[in-house]
Specification:
- The chain has helices at about 10-25, 40-50, 65-75, 90-105, 120-125, 145-150, 175-185, 215-220, 225-230, 245-260, 265-275, 280-295, 325-335, 365-375, and strands at about 25, 85-90, 110-115, 130-135, 155-165, 190-195, 220-225, 240, 305, 315, 340, 340-345, 355-360.
- The protein is built from 14 helices and 13 strands.
- The chain is α/β, with parallel strands linked by helices.
- The protein has two domains: about 10-30 and about 285-375, Aspartate Aminotransferase, domain 1 (Alpha-Beta Complex); about 55-275, Type I PLP-dependent aspartate aminotransferase-like (Major domain) (Aspartate Aminotransferase, domain 2), CATH 3.40.640.10.
- Strand 5, helix 7 (about 175-185) and strand 6 (about 190-195) form a beta-alpha-beta unit.
- The N and C termini lie far apart (about 45 Å).
- The structure holds 4'-deoxy-4'-aminopyridoxal-5'-phosphate (PMP) and glutamine.
- 4'-deoxy-4'-aminopyridoxal-5'-phosphate binds near residues 92, 118, 120, 167 and 228.
- GO terms for molecular function: transaminase activity.
């Protein structure tokens, strides 16, 4: 049969993690922690399983989890979405993104996406018959050139996808960015899909500015987050979407036929665990310490680092070490130096290479130190 995505291969995360495993290299490529999630959270899963929470969860998500997401949203962003009509629990942010895109994109619709960008947006747009319209973030700081975005908006633009804090660059959008976005789409029916999975990882005293804090944007946005990032449980695949009732209704129509619902004991455990705010309140310090440690260990290396403003990723420019294409360089250092990273060209539709690798610092200090010791020798 002819492929619906002929140009799409295996994701770079799978490719680099497999190579890291094969080479027994230190894996700073795919984004996931190498330390365990909190023990009490694990205990809660066991408790809820034993108590019999092992059957289908309600389609929209366990009520207590939706309620607690709503409360957290109010504490963080000053707006309290209605748990019944505005909050939907999904199987990871990936599913929420899929459901949001599928809910709004019709054949011929254009969707603006900002590159480099996460790999889960464009293929889904295309599967809906939509057309991804790419705008590059501005080097060297990967800020958004809103004039450029404006030029790419047309009468066919259905949506714009933003991601802050940003994977892979660590860039963080400001309130001014959100104001510009709001001005840009005022008077249109363009919807925003805001990928905020790294909402609790912003450093140096800066704050994450959520679309949920912006009344104009909030009215026409899907805001997506992931418990995988916040609670060190990427393998659980629990995420959620917050959107106004009309958008939530459409998103749930998709969700009920993608997965229908998300594992009940995991939702129950997260619902209870998130009532204590300390974990996510401490997350910026927790990850900033790792970023700083990794950056410090790389002092004297020929990689050029601009400390990441958010996420658990650090970009490193390697043009003083090699002129190789970034994918080739990433594969070679996995084999020869024993450290795996993600080549950033994978986040551009035309595989543009700016000689950047992305390192994940969601790792123990031992892992980061061992990796850095190898990288400084390059
Ligand atoms: N969006 C971004 C920007 C991500 O980095 C990730 C995780 N790699 C996701 C979405 C997907 O999150 P989840 O694992 O919860 O599906
Ligand atoms: N979000 C993770 C990353 O950016 C990867 C998730 C995946 O492997 N699909 O590394």
């Amino acid at each position: 049969p002819s492929s619906k995505l002929p140009d799409i291969g295996t994701s770079i995360f799978t490719v680099m993690s497999a190579l890291a495993n094969e080479q027994q290299a230190i894996n700073l490529s795919q984004g996931f922690p190498d330390f365990n999630c909190p023990e009490p959270l694990i205990d809660l899963v066991g408790r809820y399983m034993r108590e019999g929470f092992n059957q289908y969860a309600p389609m929209a998500g366990v009520p207590k989890l939706r309620e607690n997401i709503s409360i957290k949203t109010e504490k963080m962003y000053g707006c309290r979405p209605d748990p019944d009509t505005e909050v939907t629990v999904t199987s990871g942010a990936t599913e929420a993104l899929n459901a949001a895109i599928t809910a709004v994109v019709k054949p011929g619709d254009e969707v603006v996406i900002l590159e480099p960008c996460y790999d889960a947006y464009a293929p889904v747009i295309r599967l809906c018959g939509g057309v991804p319209v790419y705008v590059s973030l501005a080097l060297p700081d990967f800020s958004v050139d809103w004039d450029q975005v404006k030029r790419r908006i047309s009468s066919r633009t259905r949506s714009i996808i933003i991601n802050t804090p940003h994977n892979p660059t660590g860039a963080v959008m400001t309130k001014q960015d959100m104001d510009k976005l709001a001005n840009l789409i005022e008077g249109t029916d363009i919807l925003v899909i805001s990928d905020e999975v790294y909402e609790h990882m912003v450093f140096d005293g800066q704050q994450h500015y959520s679309v949920l804090q912006h009344p104009q944007l909030r009215k026409r946005s899907f805001v997506i987050s992931s418990f995988g990032k916040t609670y060190h449980t990427t393998g659980w695949k629990v995420g959620y979407a917050v959107a106004p009732p009309v958008l939530t209704t459409e998103l749930r129509k998709m969700h009920q036929f993608i997965t229908f619902s998300t594992p009940t004991p995991l939702q129950m455990a997260l619902a209870t665990f998130m009532e204590e705010e300390t974990h996510y309140r401490n997350l910026p310090d927790f990850y900033q310490a790792k970023r700083d440690f990794f950056n410090e260990q790389l002092k004297g290396s020929r990689f050029e680092l601009t400390p990441s403003a958010g996420t658990y990723f650090q970009l490193a420019k390697y043009d003083k070490i090699s002129e190789e294409y970034d994918l080739d360089f990433a594969k070679r250092i996995t084999r020869e130096a024993g450290v795996a990273a993600i080549p950033v060209s994978a986040f551009y539709h035309d595989k543009t290479d700016h000689k950047h690798l992305r390192f994940c610092f969601a790792k123990s200090e031992d892992t980061l130190q061992a990796a850095a010791a190898k990288l400084v020798q390059l």
